[in-house]
Write a structure and sequence with these properties.
single chain; three-stranded antiparallel beta sheet; alpha/beta; Methyltransferase, Methionine Synthase (B12-binding Domains), Chain A, domain 1; five-stranded parallel beta sheet
Length: 324
Amino acid sequence: MNPLRPFPTLDESLSSSPGLPIATVERETGLGKDTLRVWERRYGFPTPVRDSAGDRLYSAAQIQQLRLIRRLLDAGMRPGKVVGLDHAQLQALLTRHTPASSEYLSKTISANRAPDALQEALLQAIGRHDPRVLRHGLSAAQMRMGLAPFVTDLVAPLTTAVGEAWAQGRFEVFEEHLYTEVLTGVLRQAIASLTPQSASQGPKVLLTTLSQEQHGLGLLMVEALLMLEGCACVSLGTQTPVTDVTQAARAHQADVVALSFSNVHKATVVHAGLRELRTQLPASTALWVGGACSALYQRPLAGISAVQHLSDLQPLVAQWRQTH
């Protein structure tokens, strides 16, 4: 499962059924039920089949076409010009009606526009399947903004926007993978370019996720911000069992273990894993957790600090230093 997308894919949803009901199609495409019914009468598309109760069921191919139509409508085209065109025709129109990515990104970056404008330009680069332009846009923004604002003001909301774009039908899974791969490279390069401090001010932080958690972008964001604060960081990557986290914390003499959680796990599973880890870690080792998992903040656990926003990291580091 993609770490940015906590829902099954469209193909997965359709694999065991003849199609999706109109309410689901409305959610998948952003097109209202009434709009779909009007188009069916006026343009002869979409053409759903009927189930035993007479309700409409839409195939995966039609839903993909509806997603493309929605994108063209957002670009300013009228329904009569696009509804009923096949997939290839819609894709060709979309390519022609999307601003040239290289030129658009260059203008957006050089004009020093707000992060929202740059975010939309980067989303367009993802949609045009252009890793070169995406990488250039991210790298240029990082150099212009500085690493900390780049992470907090651009990367964090952009990552959320990419996940939402899938939910709205704007992106497919492979487009999310493209974003994740390119951004990971940009963040790793930025972290590697930081000048090491002669002596770390502490704390020494071990970064990872627990088993079944594949989300790694959050770890990279946190690592970048902690490095800027003068912390020493050791990253284990993702999906580390509790026992191994404990052993690694002891081996590296970590002052803090920092974990990232996405919103794909049940609260009971998250709390059970954290309680087990808290019990196994030495009392002197702090445990920091963060990410999109709401269970981390609804019921705080003893001996664990929940970091709901990236901006909370700096005061947490300062607090640790005051007490040590």
